[in-house]
Amino acid sequence: MRFTTLSFLLFFLAVYIVYWTVTGRARLIFILAASVLFYSTWSVGFGLHFVFMVAFTYAIVRWMRITSSNVPFYIGVGLNLANLFLFKYFYLFLELLSDVSGSSIFDALVFNKWLLAQTGYDSIILPLAISFYTFVLVAYLIDLRRGIIPEKHTFLEFSVFAMYFPHLVAGPIIRHSDFFFQLKDLHPEKQQIVRGMFLILTGLVKKVAIADNMLPLFSSIFQNPGSFSGPANLLGTASFSIWVYCDFSGYTDLARGMSLLLGLELPENFKAPFLAKSVRELWRNWHSTLGTWMRDYIYIPLGGSRRGEFRSQMNLLATFTFGGLWHGAHYPYILWGFFHGLMLVIERYLEIASDRLGIFNKSKSRFITGLSDVLKIIVVFFVFMIGVAFFNAINVKSAFVMIGQMFTFAKGMPAPNAETLLLFLVAGMLLNGLQKVKNWPKLSDRTAFTLLFVYGFVVVYLLSKFAPGGKDFLYFQF
């Protein structure tokens, strides 16, 4: 069930009514049952598989609490990562072997024929949200080993944490510190309900009115970038940037809004990323729960910034390359991660050089400072656009063709639907800027429901005019 379908609306209404009817342990049992049902609507088999992984990980948790040995930890993390590797990265592994050896024995088609003969399935199918739930389970095991989860959680609490349906499919990636303490007092305040409804309405605008309408308008540019002009490719990458923001941020708004209605606060995942004045700030504000996960469980264990400037930057480069691999078992994703890691490294060394030389000393002129900030925002957004050429590329060659067209302002076909795309770009940027408002929406008790009613009316009108039909959220595939 997608969040933007009628079937999910009916599902959530039923869940909401029953959820607040029952109390105590029964409420947790019900939300777990609803979460299992929600996931199983995509695949009953993978729903059972997910339940098994949660039960297995909890058994490891219990084992870790009664022994000083590291054996259960390595078994728990190892099986979770092996599960992720098998379903998500096995074909990339075959591709690497094929490319290195040049042998056709590692061809995916050969493997699929063998798999069909042995099992009746013609390929390995990627379970929904496997990357997200693997990171949640692995983080819990690591934090337990580090000694930062002193409290013992029941199997029911742990299962709700791992399978809680609002965040399940595409994040945000929650940690134990985000979630368990809230289970002690599930009682939404008026402000939570209002904020939740505002987030849901905003998420619907981003996803349904903007993202679902944008996607068909620029897809042809990525299919054949060499046929389109440089400006057309620029518009294509800018459009994808706004589209993926509205798609993913819209999903997060819906997830957080529904969770607030259930009395639980999920962490923010986006904080006006396209107003960032540095690449570092961009990645603090874009999919921030993934960024903090990589920082705490990859960058810091590699040594972080404790072993000198050069080692610190190489750790950063390795972390972002891994982040690209997390997004997909595809060479362009890996290059995308490497590219952004490289941009962060270059930015860091430019900052060191400018500090030593005093090149960019703070101006006392508000105009100069403001102009400098605008230029920084444009440059950072352009860096994001270059990365998009890798992220959404058919293959590596296509990505470099697109970048070449952009930098040389090459001749070619103009962008289709350019005027409409520009309008969507402006709308997306305005919604991005709205996230700069702290604790939005923060309303007085007297005006909250009046403004909510007016906003709801406007959103319903927009959806009636611009809803093209539900499409899957991009991050469902991760």
Structure explained in plain terms:
- The protein has 478 residues and is mainly α.
- The chain has two domains: 6-187, no CATH class; 191-477, no CATH class.
- It contains 19 helices and no strands.
- The protein has helices at residues 6-19, 24-40, 44-65, 71-101, 108-119, 130-146, 155-163, 165-168, 176-179, 190-223, 230-261, 279-285, 288-299, 309-327, 331-357, 366-391, 396-408, 418-434, 448-466.
- α10 runs antiparallel to α11.
- The radius of gyration is 23 Å and the shape is globular.
- The mean pLDDT is 88.
Show the helix and strand layout.
Elements: H1 6-19, H2 24-40, H3 44-65, H4 71-101, H5 108-119, H6 130-146, H7 155-163, H8 165-168, H9 176-179, H10 190-223, H11 230-261, H12 279-285, H13 288-299, H14 309-327, H15 331-357, H16 366-391, H17 396-408, H18 418-434, H19 448-466
Helix pairs in contact: 2-3, 2-7, 3-4, 3-6, 3-7, 4-6, 10-11, 10-18, 10-19, 11-16, 11-17, 11-18, 13-14, 14-15, 15-16, 16-17
